[in-house]
Amino acid sequence: MMCPELLQAFQRRFGSTPRIFRAPGRVNLIGEHTDYNDGYVFPMALDRYTAVAVAPRSDRMVRVYSASMEEEITFPLDNPRRRGHWSDYIAGVASQLEMRKVRLPGADLLLFSDVPVGSGLSSSAALEISSALAFLSLTDDQLAGEELARLGQSAENQFVGMNCGIMDQFIAVHGARDHALFLDCRSLEFQLVPLPSDHCRVVVCNTMVKHELGASEYNTRRRECEEGVHHMQKQWSTVKALRDLTLEQFAHVEEELDPTVRKRCRHVISENERVLDSIRSLRRGDLHHFGELMNSSHDSLRDDYQVSCEELDLMVGIARGIPGCLGARMTGGGFGGCTVNLVETDAVDLFCREVGALYRNRTGLAPAIYISVPSQGAHEWNSQ
Ligand code: GLA
Fold first, then answer.
1. What ligand 1 atom has the least distance to the C-alpha of 156?
2. Is pTM beyond 0.90 here?
3. 168 is annotated as an active-site residue
4. Catalytic pick from 35, 168, 244, 304?
5. Residues ≥6 apart with Cβ < 8 Å to 233
6. Which domains does the chain have, with CATH numbers?
7. 39 touches 181 (CB < 8 A)
8. pLDDT averages per 10-residue partition of the chain, 384 residues
């Protein structure tokens, strides 16, 4: 749905003229399961957005129609309850804003999204950030980028009950055209790094599966990392998170750790080093090395962090066998969802055809494949 269509759909449904805000989904190029370990990540914003049209109401109710779900929900601003429903992201954002003393009027909202849901492309962060901007537009308050990202994360942690890190909300706010974003999740300092689109493309392949264990395993991984930190603090009292360790230091203590915890820590510590190496490689234009680092990232997520699955491994294996594919890995939390692939520009058509056909032959599932252009973060969407 384009901006003028959304505007008209809103006018037809609610009889008033809205403002429209949108925020993108994301794909993470490298740096997986590092954000909640105070580490480094390197995502880019997708050219797929969640858009929220908004106008105020005179009561303290929020009425939301999702054009994608074809469903309407109403909830009160006073004590909204969690329902286990997509509207929780919006209610969570509203309640977090009010907790920060932003007094909201009621609102009519209309949503539309082309970020696929449940595919590891952060449709939830896109919804949180676009609805936060929509609510804020009804007040005199503003939030700086970092606070906006934190607000979205708190809505998800405290209202929805998913203990995610900051990466998804941060890139939804700060994404930039033609750039990926190198973020230090401890200081929240970031740098935009240009992606050389004349030489390569980022291709996202959706396995079309989502295994249910994702959320509980996510929280288990977080606990295992904390256990590792706890142990290593006995040796180095200044260690606050896995981010504070090098692989060299880790080699001195790894034998003392429980074997599962050891693997989890090894992934996070090595992944942080891979992100730093990736940034250096990209800056000197070495796409081949960057691709190799993406490959190692996948192998580490599969073997040490154990968050991959058969379909992701199959999709990655197929991709790596196609000439012109420089690197392939799972992206996002894991247990299904998408892979991210770095593909030489000349080889992209062949790549999409081959991955589509071979994956379908092996699984019977037709994968969605997106050639993705790094895009702009959250903004007001004007119809001109
Ligand atoms: C999910 C979370 C992020 C991050 C990734 C794994 O997408 O929302 O915060 O932890 O998993 O890198």
1. 8
2. yes
3. yes
4. 168
5. 239
6. 3-194 (3.30.230.10), 200-372 (3.30.70.890)
7. no
8. 93 97 98 98 98 97 96 96 95 97 97 94 97 98 96 97 96 98 98 92 97 85 98 95 97 96 98 98 96 98 98 98 98 97 98 98 98 97 77
